[in-house]
Amino acid sequence: xxxxxxxxxxxxxxxxxxxxxxxxxxxxxxxxxxxxxxxxxxxxxxxxxxxxxxxxxxxxxxxxxxxxxxxxxxxxxxxxxxxxxxxxxxxxxxxxxxxxxxxxxxxxxxxxxxxxxxxxxxxxxxxxxxxxxxxxxxxxxxxxxxxxxxxxxxxxxxxxxxxxxxxxxxxxxxxxxxxxxxxxxxxxxxxxxxxxxxxx
Length: 200
Hints:
Elements: E1 4-8, E2 12-18, E3 21-29, H1 33-46, E4 52-59, E5 65-69, H2 79-88, E6 94-101, H3 108-125, E7 129-133, E8 135-143, H4 147-156, E9 160-165, E10 169-177, H5 181-190, E11 195-198
Antiparallel strand pairs: 1-7, 2-3, 3-6, 4-5, 4-6, 8-10, 8-11, 9-10
């Protein structure tokens, strides 16, 4: 199973101006459609006076979940050129929004395609691209005496600990590479008294 993908390390910004219109491009690393929706809602609040909030996103190591939205611009003149930039950079788990302030002069479909494409490309040019692995979130639930065994497994697989609660009753939320999920889950459950739940 291919679980490696390229994404951006942190949010990035780009800008393109044409005949008084201003295109502000904002790129964000995202993991879920929920994050995409929340980000767009926030941006619409922040840039409430803009004419259009066009966007595209791609999710998953296989890039199988994607969408392009023209937000009122002519069909395929905004969302598709933005998605095209994401694809030509071979990125995933990314949301790219281009916010347009209308400058009074119509650009025509060709002009719009170029403007959205250029703004998106500028944001990606300012982004740091990183390679990541798709991960699952497992929760290990165990009693205090199993702590050493659990922690040595965490160390062996170099797992990222997202949350931890150590009392008489211990809980660890662990980020595990997707293709190792079953192996790690089985090894954790192999330690007597450890319960594993998949959180995400």
